[in-house]
Amino acid sequence: MSDLPAPAATGPLGLLYRTRPDAVAALARIWDVLPDARLVGGAVRDLLCGRAVTDIDLATAVPPQDVMERLRAAGVKVVPTGLAHGTVTAVIDGLPHEITTLRRDVRTDGRHAQVAWTDDWREDAARRDFTINAMSCDRAGVVHDPFGGRADLAAGCVRFVGDARARITEDALRVLRFFRFNARYGGDVPDAQAMAAATALAPMVDHLSVERIWSELRRILAGPRVAQTLALMEHAGVLGRILPEGYDLSRLGRLLACDAPVDALLRCAALFAGDMGGIAQRLRLSRADARFVLAVQGGAAPHPGMTAHDIARMLAADPADILIARAWLRQAEELGQPDARWDALRDVIARTPRPVFPLAGRDVVAAGCTPGPRVGEVLEQVRQWWLAGGCAAGRAACLGHLRQVLAG
Questions:
Q1: Per its record, what are the GO molecular function terms (predicted)?
Q2: What angle do CA 136, 137, 141 make, to 5 degrees?
Q3: pLDDT of res. 3
Q4: Is 77 contained in some domain?
Q5: Which stretches of the chain drop beneath a pLDDT of 70?
Q6: Residue 73: inside a domain, yes or no?
Q7: 89-115 per-position pLDDT tens digit
Q8: Would you state the pLDDT for residue 383?
Q9: In a domain, 7, yes or no
Q10: Residues 135 and 173 in one domain
Q11: Rounded to the nearest 10 degrees, how much is the dihedral formed by the CA atoms of 164, 170, 176, 180?
Q12: Would you state the pLDDT for residue 109?
């Protein structure tokens, strides 16, 4: 195996090797097999602006079948993750590295693309969405930037490669991606051509799968500048199309003003309006996500001034994460700004063990109650007594009250 050149300390590869030392050996093995391969897309973009890199993707002019054969011959495990689009995954030391053959679009329909292989790096870069995603970095650390992405990155400009309308027509998801990337990498004023194209072609998002819409929306909600981004999406006529049931930007804005944690689902609970169950079903949220959002918007919310017994009773009904999220929403609705009392309330909820009622139906039967409907009635009567006492009574005390109920 040959050694990698020592990258300049200020270059993108230098930053990668300092922040991801696990990548050094893996990239050396890949570059020994595919010396023309380059880092592409998000890895180059984030390295140039000093951000941590998670996914390390590469591109090569070598056809995908040849890529697989070369890597396997070198003892590298290869998974054909997307051969139709030229992508294979090299697994080195347990870490995946996607390698995609240079492509050009043969035909697009706004959702899917038919591609053909090419050896032209510029042609491959031209099919990418934004200039900041169209850069590549070779083994020597040289950044190849055919469309001015580096300057756009420095200027805080998220700009489509070439004609914005043409890029969106190729894939309607780029409307939502524009707003997500502009939130993270753009400035205060979005690129005029990009904004105009996203506005004019907003109806195209109606044809996207709800899974793709939810994936982008969730990332937007978990990212920076949420309020500004959603306001731009509303102005462009996009937000109403992806949330036709309704939304409440004012409530979300008050939640953000409270310095609530960065939590996409909590922000969903503040943003979504109308039929929550219908929204969750239409967007096909996972059961856990839907359960969380529905629970946060429904049920009693804690508030400062509650006693320990009050909090215990609420915890007996709902877990701490739900109560804490409800507290954030209630603070947003009532106050709309940071407040130490609400912070203290959430801290108490988080530190309070969740009480569990210590009896079950079998305990009622064992105490002499004939099996049947009365068992549930008696058990609930004892449980209400336990709740009234702030869930403080233990098993022995509850059994004692059970006997009193049965005796009475």
A1: CCA tRNA nucleotidyltransferase activity; metal ion binding; nucleotide binding; tRNA binding
A2: 165
A3: 45
A4: yes
A5: 1-10, 106-114
A6: yes
A7: 999 988 899 999 999 876 665 455 667
A8: 97
A9: yes
A10: no
A11: -70
A12: 56
Phi-psi region of 3 (alpha: psi -120 to 50; beta: other; left: phi over 0): beta
Q: What confidence score (pLDDT) does residue 2 get?
A: 39
* pLDDT reported for residue 84: 82
User: In 3D, which of 209, 200, 140, 150 has the Cα closest to residue 175?
Assistant: 200
Cα–Cα distance measured from residue 39 to residue 362, given in angstroms and rounded to the nearest whole number:
64
What number of other Cβ atoms are within 10 A of residue 211's Cβ? 10
Q: Using an 8 Å Cβ cutoff, are 149 and 134 in contact? A: yes
Residue whose C-alpha is closest to residue 382's, from 286, 8, 396: 396
Count each helix (H run) and each strand (E run) in the chain, helices first.
Answer: 22, 9
Task: Please give the pLDDT value at position 20.
Answer: 82
Among 134, 155, 176, the domain boundary falls at 155
User: What is the count of structural domains for the chain?
Assistant: 3
**H-type helices in 222-372, by residue range?**
226-235, 239-242, 249-257, 264-271, 276-282, 287-297, 308-317, 320-334, 340-351, 361-366
Nearest to 302 by CA among 348, 254, 251, 260: 348
Q: Is residue 253 part of a domain?
A: no
Token pair belonging to 189: 């004023």
- Distance CA(332)–CA(256), nearest Å, equals 8
Please tell me what DSSP assigns to residue 133: G
In the structure encoding, which two tokens stand for residue 289, read together?
Answer: 């996500």
Q: Which residues pair with 113 in a beta bridge?
A: 108
